[in-house]
Amino acid sequence: MREFLKSIRFKILLAFIAFLMGIMIYAVTRGGYSLSSVSFINTITKPFRFITNAVSMKIENTADSVNNSISYYEENKLLKQKIGELNKQLTEYEDLKEEVKELRKLVVIKEEHPDNVFSQSAEVLGYVANDPFKGFTIDRGYADGIKPYCPVITPEGLVGITIEVSQFTSTVRTILSPDLSVATVCSATNSDFGIVEGTVITAENNMTKLTHLTMNHEVKKGDLIVTSGSSGLFPKDYAVGTVTEIGVEANGLSAYAEIKPSVDISRLSSVFVIINFDKKKDINTKREEEKKAAMEAINEDKDNP
Amino acid sequence: MRIKTTREKRIFYFKTALRWTLYYVIILMSFVIMTTGSWKKPVLLVPVALCIAINNDIMASAYTGAFCGFLIDIACGRLIGYNAVILTIFSAAMTLIFELYLRRKFINYIVLTAIMTFLQCFLDFQFFYKLWDYENVNNIFRNVTLKVWIYTMISSVILYVIFRIINNLLMPKEHLTIEEVIRNN
User: Fold this and answer.
1) Which of A42, A47, A87, A157 has the highest CB neighbour number within 10 Å of its CB?
2) To probe the interface with A, which of B33, B34, B36, B38 has the most A CB atoms within 10 Å?
């Protein structure tokens, strides 16, 4: 031992330890930055460390999964269950969000038209196959209070009218169709009345036509056309569309305007049906009275031949 | 077809049931395709009914034609029964023509399907647009009726192949005895 302590090897060892301590102290003074030599070594050894680390991690994970396979399996099962529940909640949340959105729109329309009775939001089931006038079917029928010839709207404006109603579905004829006439007025002038009626040509471009305008009308491009409510078939003040083109009919007696519907009829997902409104009630009553009067007249004729 | 044993009978019933199930699955799928989206689509149910009519007896073809017709009426928003009547007649006629006059060849099928599909599209145009005398009504014929007819003809080729495969696999083949063959000849 004494020999060793006196030997050069021991002195070299001491010197090396002192050198290492010196490096240690220097490293402390670097304030967190590694020494250049360490950086060099790190850089050189990085790929090897990466590979060896990856291998060791793999082995470790395999061993761990073998050892704890049952607990992992149980955990996995629980997590899957939880994910399923969360997905279900997410779907419900999305549905509710959509419903709230629809209801908000309905509230706005209801505030604007307090006398109108609306159906619940109706989903568009599908468009009538190969119909050039974009007729479609909705998922509400007479079980929801819908009758034939009820106006169909969206918050943007008028879409059309129900023409065929079954228990849970209804077919809608749109304002692009020549078979539907809507009494309208220009909202800017409030005096230019006309009839909105689709044509084959305008329907090709998802447009419709305002006809029977007087020759001295004041309708301009960009004016909004709204329902006048005078026919009793549609309630008042629902947007139909904006004027894009104005012209004179071939007969030279009246003018017409091409209308871009407020609603994009080719891309509908949900609509509302107006089940009842003030003027419609009046018309129904009037019709019943007329019927009664006619029946009475017939009966009188039978009594006094 | 001559059925000899109980096993043969069972196989025959099973194949027939499976064949008709597949027919009706195709019919329902065609209906779903016809009611999806707002673009122009082929009237798939017409070639389907005609494909079925080629290889089956007249009554089965007529009933299937009527069913397909009802589905077309629903999909196209037509008067319920209108297309049912047309397709019943077409299906029955198709069966009769193939039984009496023509061989079951693709060319015969495609020619007859072209005629019958065109008739169906043309009658639809006549009754639902032309009759009402809409302004520029011929635009509908050009832009809708003809396009739909062309799409239907293209799809009828695909449908023919599908039905050919089903029939090859599941249609009972005729087994004649030697005596019957001699008698027939």
Assistant:
1) A157
2) B38
